[in-house]
Each structure stands twice: as structure tokens, then as C-alpha cells.
Design brief:
The structure holds 2 protein chains of 2 kinds. Chain A is built from 8 helices and no strands. By secondary structure, chain A is mainly alpha-helical. Chain A is 75% helix and 0% strand. In chain A, helix 4 runs parallel beside helix 8. By secondary structure, chain B is an all-alpha fold. Chain B has a domain of 223 residues. In chain B, 74% of the residues lie in helices and 1% in strands. In chain B, strands 1-2 form a two-stranded antiparallel sheet. In chain B, strand 1 and strand 2 form a beta hairpin. Chain B starts with a helix and ends in a 5-residue tail after the last helix. The chains are: A mainly alpha, B mainly alpha. At the A-B interface, helix 7 and helix 8 of A face helix 5, helix 6, helix 8 and helix 9 of B.
Amino acid sequence: MFQIFDVLIIVAVALNFMALGVSRIRGVINAVALQGVLLGIFPLFIHSELGLRGFALMAVAVILKGRVIPAFLIEAIREADIRHEVQPIVSFITSLLLGALGTALALVFSSTLPLTTEHTSLLLVPASFSTVWTGFLMLTTRRKAIMQVLGFLILENGILLFGLLLLEAMPFLVEAGVLLDLFTGVFVMGIIIHHISREFSSISTDDLSELKE
Amino acid sequence: MVYLLILFPLAMSALAFGVKSNRVRPLLLPLGAAVQLALVMYVIFELANEEDVTGLHGWLLLDPLGKVVLGFVSVLFFGCSLYAPGYLAYRVDRPNRVFCTNLFASLAMMTLVTLSHHLGLMWVAMEAMTLISAPSIYFNHNTRSLEATWKYLLIGSVGIALALLGSFFLAYSALKSGLESTLLFDQLVADAPLLSPPWLHAAFVLLFIGYGTKMGLAPMHAWKPDAYGEAPGIVGTLLAGGVTSCAFLAVLRVYQICSAGPEAHFSRQILIVMGLLSMAVAAVFMARQRDFKRMLAYSSIEHMGILVLGVGLGGMAVYGALLHLLCNGLTKGVLFLSAGNIHRAYNSKSTDQVRGALKRVPLSGGMFLLGYLVIAGAPPFGPFISEFTIASAAMNSGQYLAGGLYLLFLAIVFVGMGATVLAVVQGSPPTDMPPTTFRDSLSTSGPILLFAALALTLGLYIPDPLQALLTDAAAQVDALDELEPRVAAAAPAP
């Protein structure tokens, strides 16, 4: 059981690299959606008895991240009629290298933190830090507003990965917190993206550079 | 009773959404704010029994610290609500349904933050507050305010996300020590000495960065000049006085937990260094600032720095910081609202065009000048007392380096801000600009006078109930210091 879980965690981390490396926005959306679905089913491996509420929250998480949010983002691209390339500020190769560096550092850093005995063998903590790092990388090195939203989603996924450690101790808080954050955040950002695309007929944040010292 | 404090503004929010008339709707603001203020004052000063102010199994609890912030936010909101009808009447071309609805909803969320005694609940309220205030920044619906809103939303959301990770770390530090995992404040403060130090350490850093972003401390302040510069003056006041105060409360809660545990010295040093850094950044960017609304944003960054510095210094400075929370917020009301009036009277907020405000809008121009003197610490106003308390606490506890730098930055800001303010108010209005119809009137100047009068009152005389409340709140933050002598914990900033 735990071996399958480890493999799935590694897949989730690999999706970070896919999100950093693919050149089409659709590809990034797919990677983030798949990662969201994977994370959505992780509670099955951690919690022995989920209960009805646990299952309900899990289903909501999977549907939201795997279906609703991606559809919403794809709709935003279509409506804004933007070019479908990512157009990063730093090259894809550099992004991937930075991502790899971050993952290595995450492994080192998480080995310095003391874990409870039942968590020591889990890859969750390094995977979480590496995903948070990837989210930051996307937020800072991509021009398009929609890519920054995707970076934010990855960042949230990383935080949820860590939250899984607490699932047994405070199940409701972890799930509800992350879902609320995701849904409301992405929803409001989606509205703003809509306004940006109407105002500038593009959603590149390069246009958002009027305000500075 | 506590539920009513949150439900009432929410109900007003729904009512504001339901009213159809663009002219009638703004009148709900002063009405609702007055009732809310009365409710809050009743709860703070009349309900002595603790059971009356708890709810949701201890998740909601109004303690002295919460009372200080809640009372202040309600007063500030009331002052702003008096200003709103006059302002929105002038801008009747813009629909204000979303604006009014969101103002009430954000009041409800600010109230919830002050009542939360659970880290998770507080986090949810902060998140909601961030999202709700975003559309208000976009009130003017132009490209510049769009950019400001985007930055506010993105940076704010990332900050809040980090605070969530920090909350998880805190919960895990309890789990690691074999304690029952909880995010209830009182439980965490009681457990603090037993929490796993590495996790607590990391949790404090993440929570401080997260909520510090919402406070607008340097170097997480990038959203602030843009948001304050583009938002209407009334929103600027509520952001600079209300939202930041709530974020400061969140920082204080986290600090309370850490200072009760093994991380007291570490967290105190972080607060001192970050406070001084914010003051320094503000001092640098305020010099030669031509946009006077952006200048106010840097002033806000400076004063948020003073707040965390005061808490880091400990002892009397904590009391000074809490008093400064009130004084700074009230003075920010004077500055932002008068700056908003000047902005309207010139249709510009750059000192390239705006000159001679004392001639065109004498009252607003005069109050803008007065607000500058007050915030810089001119006696006999409130900020003088609070800023002086922090300085003398630093010196008396032997933290000369931090105290010296604090005074130095205050002096630099005084000069830098003065150049911009004087450029705005002095001289004669430019003749080559299209004229505007906006002039001083009672509805847009009265609230400014009210804020100035309150700031003056705090400088001359602090009523006994308020004094007792501030002392209780300060003791709550810095309870440790009554046990150990200050000298031992005094650490010079690097």
C-alpha cells in the first residue's frame, strides 16, 4: 500500500516539472489538474477510516480541481483569445533546472525537521516543499496572468501536501481551508483576468506596469 | 451577543445589495455603522462576564486585545461611513452597489478576525477580508486600478497561503510533541513551552511573512503603494487603518504563542529587525515622492514598522504600540480622506499639477497639512504620546541601537514627507488645468475633523476605561516580561 503511495507522490512531483517545462498553456492546465486529482485521492492512503464527511470532501476536491477549475481557466483563455504559448521570462531549461535545484534543497531541508515516527518514511514533506517552490517559480517567472494563477494553484497543492500529515488530527480544517482558498481565490482572480483581457485585449502582466516608482 | 456583531454587518451588506437606488444606498452606511458602533461599545464596556462574549465552543472569544482592535475598527468604520454619502454623491456616475455591499461585508470579516480565538478561523476571516476588499480597490474601473487590484490580490493571496502553511506547521509542532493537535489560541499558549522548537521556529517565520504581507511590512509591501494610490480615499483609510490593524492582531496572536515558548528571543529579534527595515524602506521611498497618495502608502508602511518594532522592544513599548495602533489609524483617516478630497478637487494626485490646495480647498488642504504634522509626532496629538512612549521604552530598557535608529528614521521621514506635503498645500493653484466642481463641504470635511478631534483627544487625555483596556491588552501580549527582568531579554538589533 505504502509503496503505491510513494509512487503516486513521485508522480505528483513529476507533474511540477511538466508544469514548468511544457510550452502550451493547455499543457500546464492539464498538469495542474492531474496533480489536483492525485492530491484529492491521497487521503485514501493516509486515513484508514475516512467516514462520510471525508469522502464527501474528497469528492468535492477532486471535482473542483480536476474539472471545474480547469474548465474555468480554459474558458478564460478562449474568451480572452490569447496566444497559447506560455512565454516565460526565463527559458524553460532554466526553469526546469531551478525546479530541480529546489527539489534537491527541499530534500535536504526536510531531513533537518523532526517528524513523528509514523511520518518519517513518508515522502510527503519534501514533496510538499518542492511543490511550494515550483509554485513560487511559476508566480515569478511567467508573464501571463493566467500562468500566475496556475502558479498559485501549484503553491496551494504544495501546502495541501503538507496538510495531509495533519489529516488525522484535524481533518475538517485541512480540507476546508485549502478548498476555500482555492475556490474563492481562483474565482476572484478569474474575474479580474476577465477584466484585464477586456481592458488590454491580452492577459500579459507586461501591460500591468504603469504603477512604479 | 458575539454572533450579532458579525451577523449585523452581514445583514446590512445584504440589504445594501438589495437596495436599487444609487442615491439612497450610500445612506445605509452611516446608519449601519452607527448601530454597529453602539453594539460594539456595549459589548466592550458593559458586558463584564466572559461567557457573554464567547461562542462556537471557544472558537470566538473577545479578549482585551481583541477589544482594542474591534473598538478601533468600529470607530474608524463609523468615521468613514459618514464620509461615504458625500463622496458617492459626487461620484454618482459610478454604480456603488458592489462598493457598499463589500464595505459592510469587510466590516463583518474584520470583526470576525478580532473575535477569532482559533488560528484556522482567523485565517479564514483574513482570507475573506482580502478577497472582499479587492473590488473596492477597482472602484474607478480604469487600467491603473486594475493593475493595483491584480497585485493586491495576487500578493495578498500568496501571503495568506503562506500563513496557512505556517498554521499547519504550528499544528504539527504540537503533534510532534505528542500533544493533542489544536489551533485554539489559549491551548497553544498554554502548550507553548512543550511545542517542538524547529517546527515552531518555521511556523513563526511563515506566519509572520504571511500576515506581515497583509500588514504591508517591507519587503512584502509591493502591493501597498499601488493599492493605496489607486483606491478611493475611503478605501485607503479602511485598508490602512482597519485591514492592517487586523493583520497586526494576527501577528500579535502568533507572537503571543511564540513568546510563551522557547522562541521568545528569536521572535522578538525578528520583530525588531523587520520593524526597522520597514521604517528604513519607507524613509527611502518617501523622499521625492511626487504622488501624494502613494506617499501615504509609504507612511503606512513606516507606521506598521513602528507597531511591530514596539512589540519587539517589549515592556512599555508594547503599550506604546497598541496606543499607536489607535493614533496612527485615526490620523490615517485625516490624511487619506483629505488627500482624497484634494485628488477630486484637482483630478490629479501628482505634485506636478497639485499646488495651492490651501487656496482651492482650504479645509481639506489645511487638514492634510495638520495630518502630516500629527503623524510626524507633533504634540499635543496622540501619535506624539505613542511614538514617544516607544522611544523612551527602548532607551530605558537599554536597547540604544534600535531606539536610535527608530528616532533617526522618524526624522528622515519627517523631512521627506514634508517636502511633498508642503508642495501640495502651498503656492497658488495652477491655472492651465481643466476646472473641477469639487469643493469642501460639510459631508466630505466633517469626518476629517472628527478623526482629527479624536487624535487630539488621545493626546490630551485617555479615558480610564480605555486606559485599563490598553494596559490589559499590553499585559496579554507581553505577559512574560512581568516575570523576568527586561535587561536579560534586551538584544540590540544587528
